[in-house]
From TrEMBL, chain A:
<feature type="compositionally biased region" description="Low complexity">
    <location>
        <begin position="115"/>
        <end position="138"/>
    </location>
</feature>
<protein>
    <recommendedName>
        <fullName>Replication factor C subunit 1</fullName>
    </recommendedName>
</protein>
<feature type="compositionally biased region" description="Pro residues">
    <location>
        <begin position="239"/>
        <end position="251"/>
    </location>
</feature>
<keyword id="KW-0547">Nucleotide-binding</keyword>
<dbReference type="Pfam" id="PF00004">
    <property type="entry name" value="AAA"/>
</dbReference>
<dbReference type="InterPro" id="IPR008921">
    <property type="entry name" value="DNA_pol3_clamp-load_cplx_C"/>
</dbReference>
<dbReference type="InterPro" id="IPR047854">
    <property type="entry name" value="RFC_lid"/>
</dbReference>
<dbReference type="InterPro" id="IPR003959">
    <property type="entry name" value="ATPase_AAA_core"/>
</dbReference>
<dbReference type="Pfam" id="PF00533">
    <property type="entry name" value="BRCT"/>
</dbReference>
UniProtKB/TrEMBL annotation, chain B:
<feature type="domain" description="AAA+ ATPase">
    <location>
        <begin position="34"/>
        <end position="187"/>
    </location>
</feature>
<dbReference type="InterPro" id="IPR003593">
    <property type="entry name" value="AAA+_ATPase"/>
</dbReference>
<keyword id="KW-0235">DNA replication</keyword>
<dbReference type="InterPro" id="IPR050238">
    <property type="entry name" value="DNA_Rep/Repair_Clamp_Loader"/>
</dbReference>
<dbReference type="InterPro" id="IPR027417">
    <property type="entry name" value="P-loop_NTPase"/>
</dbReference>
<dbReference type="Pfam" id="PF13177">
    <property type="entry name" value="DNA_pol3_delta2"/>
</dbReference>
<dbReference type="Pfam" id="PF21960">
    <property type="entry name" value="RCF1-5-like_lid"/>
</dbReference>
<dbReference type="Pfam" id="PF22534">
    <property type="entry name" value="RFC_C"/>
</dbReference>
<dbReference type="InterPro" id="IPR008921">
    <property type="entry name" value="DNA_pol3_clamp-load_cplx_C"/>
</dbReference>
Length: 1021, 356
């Protein structure tokens, strides 16, 4: 065991104190939720190497040798009654508890921290209890043994599943076989092997998704290797008994407790199994799901700023805090959190299953480590404001700078105020109605504190500077005809396109730089109409207007948006991507304008990858602004706060900035509103403020289903409330239930994880059945909502019944459904229901057509036609074509005529068949020759028609109308009344007429007279 | 050249083969001059519509058989256009308002008023009133039924209603009380075989009794089905001798396949496969209740006696929900999931939890 740092070893004594305390606490936890029972066993597994090392020579970087474990067994056997032993074991284990992870990572390298690890430990669990000293209750052991057997069966499955998830089936099977082989061989080889493995694995770089997948598999094998030898030799891992965690104390309990233990075991297995699916997705989910024992420890209250100047790194899973919460805790006390340990790191807080590479660095750099408990204690005990000299100085320097800036601002404001007053006075004399400039105090903060010089721009310094130089060189480049690229290649562009997210100062910088370069900026934005015409005319770029000459001095003449256009004008086109529907041709016109502009143009947009921005790509210099980092904004905000006398500590400011994604404008707006009510803000208020200002986004149903049925969506560690989940439904309440109905059969419910074989299937079915019932209930509720009663207030209930409840039952990782296409691998897919429903509607209409035609002969309704007549009729009008081919055509057509069925109806008829009569099969069976003979034959003859469909008739009417007038107009002179009216009258008369063709002729023959007469009659009217 | 079932359909009350007392009552009603509104109800294939047409013929003479079909267009208040097919003669008009689903009320209001407000034009007509036949009256929405109520009384002079339904349970009481209820029961086996033999005689061949028996057992009191099966059988095996397997309709074999699939394996994956099949049945216009019933029947045939009552129970349970809800497949799926669970439980543990 590598004694990592002097500090940590020094702490050994402390941790000895902790451990008993901890185990007591744990015991409490056990009572609360029987989960931890599992964890301690897991502890055995993961501690296996630890134990051996501690009992061994103490530098147990190596996997356990058989000798070692023998020794251990003896030790334990000597002390069969566990209670007395505990203290000693605690001592041993406490050292291990400090750095169990280090060792772990040595024996098997786990890149994806959380779930992989826990699977491994879950796996390791069963053999361990078995190997417990004989002193422990034998009945208990039996129980565990059973379960372990079961588990082993299942182990294979998850392994396969995981693999296939990651890489596809072929690979999975390969892996699987490998697994089998290895476990076989390991039965003989035993211990030395892991050693080799460990080395091999170490060479792999973790933290990368692919990697984690592959090594996940390794993990499995690894674990099993460990297990199997143990089992075969029944050599036991006696070191296990005490461990740091609670069960040790519990384990010795008399056999009477065995039953209870069994319960625990069950419970715990449920918990354990979830992570039994370690893939990167599960890992992410586990991380999202949070710590194992949320809230099991009291979160310490420390002195404010007590962590100031310290840098922390977190690795592994903490016991009671989620990663986010832990980071928040550090920030709350002004500490800093970085992602990876480095020389500057003050402490590393190590949790379970810590990342291997981090541990390595820690080891190399000798960074002091802490457990969660120690970390809490550290916060509690440390006094606030302890800073070393350097940090102190830095802080003071910063404060000074802030003060200075604030003073500057103050001064400038005063000057401006003076200037404003002076102007006002001057204007009063002249009698010209001047626009009143609002005094600074009543301006928005965003205007008031808009940067006045380059120094004050937060972030994006380089692009802003380039913009400045470009503007300065513009006239020169204009002289060169934009032929010389110049140093930075910007010399050939007449315009610049700035892109970037909102609120980071694009517009502000553009204005500022334009002013600094001596230009007079004209801004056109989405609030101005910018159609092609307007862009060409209104911008007045060619400066042909005399507008400005006829106004007095002192007042700015208006040309474009209140700004005078002269040679020193710069056009800023803001929100170019907002040029849409109303601004037809806007971008094109703009582009033309750019090509011939005589003044510099600055174009600003949020997203330059849009299709409509394409034309601008070649004509403009592309400049991307990025979100400034919190530190870049901090000092500016701090000086503004200082000036405004608002007391907000820097860590809170950072939190605010981060919360709004570095949107400076929003931070200022938030603060200025906050200022109205309070003068101080603490960490929690800051959090709250960010939360209130959070931008809501609409999720797609796909994402929603993913979130609702994810592998950990309803696990005990999930922090979402019922309301949160119902909220998902309301993102799109018409679609989400359908998606849920489509998806609920496609998961492997997490609730079945503790079972296997047929029992698991049964449980799965039970869950599915419950979910289906709930969906069925949901439909009843839906009927109340959308039916005649319109009980829209039932929507939340519908949310629960149709979406949340089913999800709570069947949440779990996706399952391969054997189908191809999207959703085949368990992801949500688009609901079939919609397609099927419209198909049903279509066929229903066709069936109605068939029914109404047959109605003259048949008494049955629609469903009777479908259920009883159609199978029979098929043998008369479909099957003969299949069996006898062309010969049967005559007969078929005769039958169809008998029932007034048209060729279209015949097609519909075939389409309505299912099973052996389904359209695919039938249409394949009828030879093409027969089909075409059938069609030809049918079209040749006239057929009785039961009635004219409305649309059919309308069509023929039109046709007649088109044909009718042409010959007439020559005979009938002065016929201005529309002729088309006439044939339609005719058509109606002929309503009962059966045939279209005869009608046509008839009309043509009769027309001239009729048309004239009618036309005149009409004219009279 | 038409199917036997249409070819040998009785045209007058005298030709009817069974329910003679009903025929005589209808005849006297038609003769009385005070013809009431009538609600015919009874199972499918029992002869309701045949009797209605016979009665009309009794009322108006052979003129009612000159049918024509019209397609009428209605505009709903929300400006949706609806096509309704109307079958009519000079004396009567027949419509199926339930074709247009939730807009049936508009159809009832428009058409009925129109007919009710015009008097019989034909002076030679035997009756002063016209007859409106409303098919699938039990599928009418409550609103539509309510729209009927007052019209039935107000326009009694010009119009009589004949409603045709499978069951009276979905018809609101006010309408039931305004109608003369006429139940057309399904024919007994004897009556059916009388009809079958009659047809055989007309077609000039003898019907062996084993064949008749198998027809009767498959058709279960549905005379239409019996005749169709009869003809199919005759086509299949012209001599009608020996052990004849009656060909099942396509959808029924498909339902059986679904049922078999359920019995064969019970898992979420299987349920997913079954869902696809159910969708296919539903989209091809097989009514969901029929699907449910056929599947349930088939399953009941195949499972242990101890499970039978339970499966029937659940079938009834979900059929009710299906009728109350709007997305039928949800309930069908819930039913199948339930059956799978129950079946699996029974096979694994030997008993199942009590059902409510």
């Amino acid at each position: 065991m590598p004694p990592s740092t002097p500090k940590s070893s020094g702490k050994k004594a402390d941790s000895e104190d902790y451990s008993p305390k901890k185990s007591q606490e744990k015991k409490k936890a056990v009572k609360k939720d029987e989960k931890p029972a599992g964890r301690d066993i897991r502890g055995f597994g993961s501690q296996k190497p630890t134990g051996s090392s501690s009992t061994g020579n103490g530098t147990g970087k190596k996997p356990i040798t058989i000798d070692d474990s023998d020794e251990e067994e003896e030790i334990v056997e000597q002390k069969p009654t566990p209670k007395p032993t505990t203290s000693k074991h605690f001592a041993a284990s406490s050292s291990s508890s400090k750095k169990p992870i280090v060792l772990d990572s040595d024996s098997d390298n786990t890149p994806a921290p959380a779930p992989t690890r826990s699977t491994a430990s879950a796996k390791a669990k069963p053999p361990t209890p078995k190997s417990k000293p004989a002193s422990t209750a034998s009945s208990k052991r039996k129980v565990i043994k059973d379960s372990s057997d079961e588990e082993e069966l299942e182990d294979i499955k998850p392994a396969k599943k995981r693999q296939s998830l990651a890489g596809g089936l072929s690979r999975a099977t390969g892996k699987k076989s490998a697994y089998v082989e290895e476990s076989d061989s390991s039965e003989e080889e035993v211990k030395p092997k892991p050693k080799i493995r460990a080395k091999k694995e170490k060479s792999v770089t973790p933290m990368d998704v692919d990697e984690s997948e592959s090594s996940d598999g390794d993990d499995f094998i690894d674990d099993d290797e460990d297990d199997l030898p143990k089992k075969s030799k029944s050599k036991a891992k006696p070191k296990a008994p005490p461990a740091k965690k609670p069960t040790p104390a519990k384990k010795p309990a008399p056999a009477a407790k065995a039953a209870k233990k069994e319960l625990d075991e069950d419970e715990e297995k449920k918990e354990e199994k979830k992570p039994a699916n370690p893939n990167w997705r599960a890992a992410a989910a586990a991380r999202a799901a949070g710590p194992k024992n949320p809230g099991s420890k009291e979160i310490p209250e420390g002195a404010p700023d007590c962590l100031a100047g310290l840098t922390f790194v977190f690795t592994g899973e903490l016991d009671s805090l989620g990663r986010d919460e832990a980071m928040e805790l550090v920030k709350r006390y002004s500490g800093k959190v970085t992602g990876a340990p480095s020389g500057k790191t003050s402490f590393v807080i190590v949790g379970d299953n810590a990342g291997a590479s981090k541990l390595k660095t820690i080891h190399e750099k000798k960074i002091p480590t802490m457990t969660e408990e120690e970390f809490f204690e550290f916060i509690r005990s440390r006094k606030g404001g302890q800073l070393d000299e350097k940090a102190m100085k830095a802080k003071q320097a910063e404060e000074k700078k802030i003060k200075q800036q604030a003073e500057e601002m103050e001064k400038r404001e005063k000057e401006e105020e003076k200037e404003r007053k002076r102007k006002e006075k001057a204007l009063q004399g002249t009698g010209i109605a001047a626009k009143k400039v609002a005094p600074a105090s009543s301006q928005l903060w965003t205007t008031k504190y808009a940067p006045q010089n380059l120094k004050e721009v937060c972030g994006n310094k380089a692009p802003v500077e380039r913009l400045g130089t470009w503007l300065q060189d513009w006239q020169k480049n204009y002289g060169y005809g934009f032929k010389r690229p110049g140093k930075d290649g910007m010399g050939i562009y007449r315009a610049v396109l700035i892109s970037g997210p909102p609120g980071i100062g694009k517009t502000t910088s553009a204005h500022l730089m334009a002013k600094q370069a001596g230009y007079n900026p004209i801004e056109l934005n989405a609030s101005d109409a910018r159609s092609k015409k307007l862009v060409e005319n209104a911008t007045n770029i060619d400066n042909t207007s005399l507008d400005g000459f006829f106004q007095g001095t002192g007042v700015q003449s208006t040309s474009v948006v209140d700004v005078r256009v002269d040679s020193r004008t710069c056009l800023i086109m803001d929100e170019v991507d907002g040029m849409s529907a109303g601004d037809r041709g806007g971008v094109g016109a703009l582009n033309v304008l750019i090509k011939k502009t005589k003044i510099p143009m600055i174009l600003i947009c949020n997203d330059r990858t849009l299709q409509k921005m394409k034309p601008l790509q070649s004509t403009t210099f592309n400049m991307t602004f990025r979100r400034p980092t919190p530190p870049e904004i901090r000092s500016r905000i701090m000086s503004i706060l200082f000036k405004e006398k608002l007391k907000i500590p820097p860590n809170v400011v950072d939190e605010l900035v981060k919360g709004v994604n570095s949107d400076i404008r929003q931070v200022l707006n938030m603060l200025s509103t906050f200022k109205l009510s309070k003068d101080q803000m603490d960490f929690d208020e800051g959090k709250q403020l960010v939360k209130v200002n959070e931008k809501n986004t609409i999720l797609t149903p796909f994402t929603i289903i993913d979130k609702l049925t994810g592998p950990y969506a309803f696990s005990k560690t999930s922090r979402e409330t019922l309301n949160d989940r119902m909220e998902y439904y309301f993102h799109d309440f018409s679609f989400v239930p359908l998606f849920m109905q489509e998806h609920y059969l496609k998961t492997q419910p997490a609730l079945t994880n503790n079972l296997n074989g047929p029992e698991q299937n049964l449980k799965h079915l039970e869950l599915v059945s419950k979910a289906a019932d709930s969906i069925s209930d949901g439909d009843l509720v839906d009927r109340m909502i959308h039916g005649s009663e319109q009980h829209w207030s039932l929507l939340p209930f519908h949310a629960v019944q149709s979406t949340v409840k089913p999800a709570s039952l069947i949440y779990g990782p996706g399952r391969s459904t054997g189908a191809s296409g999207p959703g085949a691998w368990g992801g949500p897919s688009f609901p079939q229901w919609l397609g099927q429903n419209s198909k049903q509607g279509k066929l229903q209409r066709q069936l109605t057509d068939i029914q109404i035609r047959m109605r003259l002969k048949v008494s049955g309704g629609r469903s009777e036609i479908r259920e009883q007549y159609m199978p029979m009729l098929a043998s008369k009008i479909v099957l003969p074509l299949v069996q006898r081919g062309t010969d049967a055509v005559e007969e078929t057509i005769e039958y169809m005529d008998e029932y007034y069925l048209s060729k279209d109806d015949w097609d519909a008829f075939v389409e309505l068949g299912v099973d052996t009569m389904s359209e695919n099969i039938i249409s394949k069976k009828i030879p093409t020759a027969t089909k075409s003979a059938f069609t030809r034959q049918y079209n040749k003859a006239d057929h009785p028609i039961a009635f004219h469909k409305g649309d059919m008739f309308a069509a023929s009417k039109k046709k007649i109308a088109d044909m009718g007038p042409a010959p007439d107009n020559e005979d009938v002179f002065e016929e201005d009344e529309p002729v088309p009216d006439e044939p339609s009258d005719k058509g109606e008369d002929d309503d009962e007429e059966v045939n279209d063709v005869t009608k046509d002729k008839l009309i043509k023959a009769v027309k001239p007279k009729g048309a004239t007469a009618k036309g005149k009659a009409k004219a009279k009217k | 050249m038409s199917l036997w079932v249409d070819k040998y359909r009785p045209r007058s009350l005298d030709e009817l083969h069974y329910h003679p007392e009903l025929s005589s009552r209808l005849r006297s009603l038609a003769a009385s001059g005070d013809f009431p509104h009538i609600l015919f109800y009874g199972p499918s294939g029992a002869g309701k519509k045949t009797r209605i047409m016979c009665t009309l013929r009794e009322l108006y003479g052979p003129g009612v058989e000159k049918l024509r079909i019209d397609q009428r267009v209605f505009v709903t208040p929300s400006n949706r256009k609806l096509d309704v097919n109307v079958v009519q003669s000079n004396y009567h008009i027949e419509l199926t308002p339930s074709d247009v689903g939730m807009y049936d009320r508009v159809v009832i209001q428009d058409i009925l008023k129109e007919i009710a407000q015009t008097q019989q034009v034909d002076l030679n007509a035997k009756q002063r009133f016209k007859v409106v036949i409303i098919n699938e009256a039990d599928a009418l929405s409550r609103d539509a039924q309510a729209a009927l109520r007052r019209t039935m009384e107000k326009y009694m002079n010009n119009m009589r209603l004949i409603l045709c339904a499978n069951s009276t349970s979905k018809i609101i009481a006010p309408i039931r009380s305004r109608c003369l209820l006429v139940r057309v029961a399904a024919p007994t086996d004897d009556e059916m075989s009388k009809v079958l033999h009659h047809v055989a005689k007309k077609e000039r061949f003898a019907l062996p009794s084993p064949a008749a028996q198998s027809i009767l057992s498959t058709s279960q009191g549905n005379l239409r089905k019996a005749l169709l099966v009869f003809e199919a059988m005759k086509m299949q095996r012209p001599d009608l001798n020996g052990d004849i397997e009656v060909a099942k309709p396509d959808w029924e074999t498909y339902c059986s396949k679904v049922a078999d699939a359920i019995i064969q394996e019970q898992s979420a994956q299987r349920l997913l496969d079954v869902r696809g099949k159910i969708y296919e049945l539903l989209s091809h216009c097989i009514p969901p209740t029929v699907v449910l019933k056929t599947i349930a029947d088939r399953i009941v045939d195949k499972v242990d006696d101890a499970l039978k009552p339970q499966i029937i129970h659940w079938a009834a349970h979900y059929e009710l929900r299906m009728r109350m809800g709007s997305k039928k497949i949800f309930h069908l799926e819930a039913f199948i999931a339930k059956v799978m669970t129950v079946y699996k439980q029974f096979n694994m543990i030997g008993y199942t939890e009590d059902y409510e």
